[in-house]
Design a protein that fits this description.
Elements: H1 2-15, E1 31-34, H2 44-60, E2 63-68, H3 80-92, E3 99-102, H4 107-119, E4 123-126, H5 130-139, H6 150-162, E5 171-174, E6 188-193, E7 207-209, H7 211-221, E8 226-230, H8 234-247, E9 253-257, E10 260-262, H9 270-278, H10 293-298, H11 303-311, E11 320-322, H12 325-335, E12 340-342, E13 344-346, E14 348-354, E15 360-365, E16 373-378, E17 381-385, H13 386-391, E18 397-400, E19 404-409, E20 414-419, H14 424-429, E21 432-433, E22 436-437, E23 441-447, E24 454-460, E25 470-473, E26 477-485, E27 488-495
The protein binds one RNA strand through helix 5, strand 5, strand 6, helix 7 and helix 8.
RNA sequence: GCUCCGGUGGUGUAGCCCGGCCAAUCAUACGGGACUCUCGAUCCCGUGACCCGGGUUCAAAUCCCGGCCGGAGCACCA
């Protein structure tokens, strides 16, 4: 009895592999956050952040915060629409946020804290140029501004706010240790002047905090207990800890993961995508050739498949380079049972069937094992896919699926009727192709998953009723019918 | 260059903290077969990995040292 129970448990454990436990995590007390810069819509990469954080929070009955780290209106300028895209895509991915925070709307709060640090002489205004400071940093020497008194510092700070300094003239640095063995940690910038309107808050501020500062304060304010983020931010922690020490706060538990590279997309940053869209290389943020969540939604992927795929990547610190085939496999498991099957004839070739005794109506299974059928007319003239026609050899026997068996006459570009029945020869060679009569056809274009890749041809009219759904075009691929009318069908390539 | 981090089959992952039950998990990919009037699905079967070299130990994927390879950071970007 005991043994069998143990076996059962083991089996379940194997099926539902969970994320590794978080250190020091108490049920009901975990607070995590996902902090993107909305300079574009969420991609698979950002979705990983959402999904894994969400999964942990669900695991521990905790809370998840969405925080927009949008404190640079110039270099990584936020995109106004993207704020909502994050919320929409998260919802679609079944990621639940307990609250949403916009850093750019909370700048005065960060001012209060830096003032505190200036008073404590743990921060100082620095008038060095970047180049000058780099020299000090590399040499491990303190810059002359470092021993500014609190009084002077506060005075400079007020002048910064009131606009007496130009952009680039002065920054506020956090005192760390100019002899720290890692130069990246030495006195880092917490505030700088940026004369540029912000998409969300306009011209309200010109003194902006850096990510490191804003994030440090905000994590504490929101009571974040655990942080999971990319390893590119690993030094952030070491920098931010100084502030935590000065204020006597406790730093959250952190975990970092490596970069994800998808074979099919290569390395594509949000800003690169943006440029390519502007240049017209992509049609928009939801171009099916793009790794954005919006594109995957458009292609008809299931959120559950994306979640599983992302979770299967684990939370290790090494970089992963993975193929989308894994995602396809997950998604296929979900859609295969539900997708209706239809014929889609691409690069259509029109051919006559010589000697067809009569035109008939044929029944073809719509869904495997469901007993549902669709009806097509078998007429004297049919369309075949160009690929198939090219492949055929003269005199070859071919089965028009569920219709009739024919012999190919390449020279005269016709098919000779052989029989209604399937022949063994055809069966062995698996020479079964899809086809379409004129009266059942509707113009169809399928937008591919590579830039500018498209297939044109005819789809069967039966597919018209599946607008919005994912179907399988037999012997082609799964596709989502995005638009359907008597004029034609536009479908988006999902995956094979 | 400096500072960190990592290296398990083609790919991703579990195991590593607390050495033995690990001739190493799961998924995907690939190969073969069965079934099917789709190049899909399903069902069988199979292929295939602990970076290298030392050390500790009765015993190492797991601990220690060295090497090699890969990655990240060193911005008034996030």
């Amino acid at each position: 009895m005991v043994t069998s129970l143990a076996i059962e448990e083991k089996k379940e454990e194997k099926k539902e592999r969970k994320l590794p436990e978080l250190p020091n995590a108490e049920k009901g007390k975990v607070v995590m956050r996902f902090a993107p810069n909305p300079n574009g819509p969420p991609t698979l990469g950002s979705a990983r952040g959402m999904v894994v954080n969400d999964e942990y929070v669900k695991m521990y009955d905790g809370q998840l915060i969405l925080r927009f780290d949008d404190t640079d209106p110039r270099t990584k300028r936020p995109l106004l629409e993207a704020y909502d895209w994050y919320i929409e895509d998260a919802e679609w991915l079944n990621v639940k946020f307990d609250r949403v925070i916009y850093a750019s709307k909370r700048i005065p709060i960060y001012y209060d804290y830096i003032k505190e640090l200036l008073k404590m002489e743990k921060a100082y205004p620095c008038f060095c140029s970047r180049e000058e400071f780099k020299k000090y940093r590399d040499a491990g020497i303190e810059c002359p501004h470092r021993n500014t008194t609190a009084e002077e510092a506060l005075e400079v700070w007020e002048k910064m706010l009131s606009g007496e300094y130009k952009e680039g003239e002065v920054v506020i640095r956090i005192k760390t240790d100019m002899k720290h063995k890692d130069p990246a940690i030495r006195d880092w910038v917490a505030f700088r002047i940026i004369d540029c309107d912000h998409p969300l808050v306009g011209n309200e501020y010109r003194v902006y905090p850096t990510l490191d500062f804003e994030s440090a304060i905000e994590d504490h304010l929101q009571g974040v207990t655990h942080i999971i983020r990319g390893k590119d931010l690993i030094d952030s922690e070491r920098r931010q800890k100084y502030i935590y020490d000065y204020f006597g706060w406790e730093y959250p538990v952190t975990k970092h993961w490596g970069r994800v590279k998808i074979h099919e997309f290569g390395k594509l940053s949000t800003s690169e995508i943006r440029k390519k869209i502007e240049k017209g290389e992509y049609e928009g943020w939801d171009d099916p050739a793009l790794p954005t969540i919006r594109a995957f939604r458009r292609r008809g992927f299931r959120a559950e498949a994306i979640r599983k795929f992302l979770l299967s990547l684990g939370v290790g610190e090494n970089d992963v380079s993975v193929s989308l085939k894994n995602l396809y496999a997950e998604n296929r498991k979900l859609i295969d049972k539900e997708a209706n099957r239809y014929f889609f004839v691409w690069d259509a070739v029109e051919v006559k069937i010589d000697g067809l005794p009569e035109e008939v109506t044929v029944k073809i299974p719509t869904k495997p094992e469901s007993g549902e059928f669709r009806v097509l007319r078998g007429e004297k003239t049919v369309f075949l896919s160009g690929d198939d026609w090219e492949r055929f050899k003269d005199g070859e026997l071919v089965r028009l699926k569920d219709f009739c068996t024919v012999k190919v006459d390449k020279e005269n570009r016709v098919l000779e009727f052989v029989s209604w029945e399937m022949s063994n020869e055809v069966k062995k060679g698996k020479n079964i192709v899809h086809w379409l009569s004129w009266s059942d056809s509707v113009v169809c274009v399928v937008i591919g998953d590579k830039p500018r890749l498209k297939w044109g041809g005819f789809a069967e009219k039966n597919a018209l009723k599946d607008a919005g759904k994912v179907v399988q075009f037999e012997r082609f691929a799964f596709c989502r019918i995005e638009f359907a009318s008597d004029e034609g069908i536009r479908a988006i390539y999902t995956h094979p």
